[in-house]
Amino acid sequence: MSPVALGLVIGAAVIHAGWNALAKRAADPLAFLWCAGVVGTVLYLPGVISVLVVGGFRLAALPFVIATIVLHAAYFFTLGRAYRSGDLSIVYPIARGLGVVLVPIVAFVALDERLSPTGVLGISLVVAGIVTLHWPRKAARLIAPGTGWAIATGITIAAYSLVDKAGVARLSPLAYIGLMELGASIVLAPAMLARREGLRHEWRANRGAILAAGILSPGAYLLVLFAFQLSKAAYIVAGREVSIVFSAVIGSLWMKEGRLGQRLVGAAVVAAGVACVALAR
Q: What's the pTM?
């Protein structure tokens, strides 16, 4: 992975962990995520329009834009449900880590992306670190609250990562993410407007955090889309999982979820994996 791609991925990871922590703290995470999506759409729309006016819209990008809209709508829905019932330090590693496992397999079949031994080692270490982060103290905790929805979120992450790798080869990343945010907000609008009181309460209680997430969420993924143009999808998806390091500390300390030692060990293994991915070609 090139230094520029790595820098984009690490920056995205820091931002991503931050806005996910804000969503987890919300009274209604799904309402929070939808409001943040609407805010992000409005804030980024002028830039999106400018890019489309100058560069135009290639029809070849349309199937990928439609696919990512549907997949991101599913992602926001499942992530909101996962955070409603599960800990950040449980949900986040599963949701983010599952993509690391799935993307290389599908990318090999669909995109003919072949990984180097160093890349394979890095991805394996990321997966091992995630398992360490999630390892239960007791058998009864093997299936922690929110795990099912976290797995569903991870599947959508893997799916949209592969779609978006191909999509940004056909359309500017800024235009691509702007259309995605707009489309996903529209797809989820009927379900969200049916719960207007919850939306009003979330906005009143967390207006500042929603505005921050509205800027940070698409901003973080915009960095990832640019990185997709510079390196293999499997390396980008694995590299951005350094965000698990930050989520482990945030969940254990800020949100009082405990098990800091175990989280830090797992995070160190993830960081080692990311270092290998950074060196991979």
A: 0.79
